[in-house]
What does this fold into?
Amino acid sequence: MILSDLVTLLEGEVLFPEADLDREVPCAFASDMISDILMCTKEPTLLLTGLTNNQVIRLSDMIDLIAIVFVRGKKPLQDVIEMAEERGLPIITTKFTLYRCSGLLYNAGLRSCKI
Amino acid sequence: MRVSAVVRSEVMPEYRFVAEGFEDAVRKFEEQKPEAEVKTQFVIPEKDFNTAGKGSSELKNLLKRLGVDSVVLRRIAVASYEAEINVAAHSKGGIMYSTVYDDLIHVRFEDEGPGIANIEQAMTPGYSTADDLVRELGFGAGLGLPNIKKNSDAMRLVSAAGSCTKLEFLIYFAKIS
Ligand SMILES: Nc1ncnc2c1ncn2[C@@H]1O[C@H](COP(=O)(O)OP(=O)(O)O)[C@@H](O)[C@H]1O
Ligand SMILES: [Mg+2]
It folds into this structure.
């Protein structure tokens, strides 16, 4: 699937307008713990998380994130949105819970990221 | 005074790890001390989570420009970031020193204490003394040191209660066959 399909499926809101939604999403990982997320060193991945602080964007300097989905209606502060924008990293927020998002995406055929 | 300091440093507990297959390469590196291609330094202030991670991010950019493979790059960045966060989260601040060689990188972190009382325990997955502020940011899973070990070809952690902590790791740019 591409990012725009995912936005539709999760009824998401894209947090900055110029985000590239044509990106192919090969796999996904979901966690609220930074050290867990850092296990994704093998391939580029989508991240689903409830974390919205600047370190979650900083993570995308270390591992390759296709995009970040903030769950449970969470929205980062403007300076964090700007950090994502500077990096060209699409960020999306959805009202759905982490569990529901993961289920929806899994059913749509999105596989887990290799760790 | 000096003598006792030397004695104390001699008994400073340390944890050492060398990945399987890298024993000879690491020994050779330690004996020969090849010439460095690039050296960088980065200051890591205590509990500053705006700055924390920038050193590792810059290091990754530098290595990317030097043409290091992307999977190896991610391993280096993750090991470095976990170590950088540990200095910011658990110490009074410190410095990150990176040295790039022809075929590997050596990254060393030295902080101003308070040190680690039990290194074995600190290396155990899930063990963490992170405070609430640090946990709220998503840190404190107790997986940082294990993550550094997992991504490194060699690592060394030297510390004791009341001392500074030194952590260093080596990562080769290509597989050693
Ligand atoms: N630089 C350091 N200075 C003091 N203590 C440290 C340092 N690095 C790690 N530690 C100790 O080791 C524990 C485990 O570290 P780590 O595996 O990175 O997990 P976490 O950072 O999530 O707590 C920390 O909670 C802390 O008690
Ligand atoms: Mg840690």
User: Anything to note?
Assistant: The pocket of magnesium ion (ligand 2) is lined by residues B 82, 85-86, 144 (CB under 6 Å). Chain A touches chain B through 21 residues (CB under 8 Å).
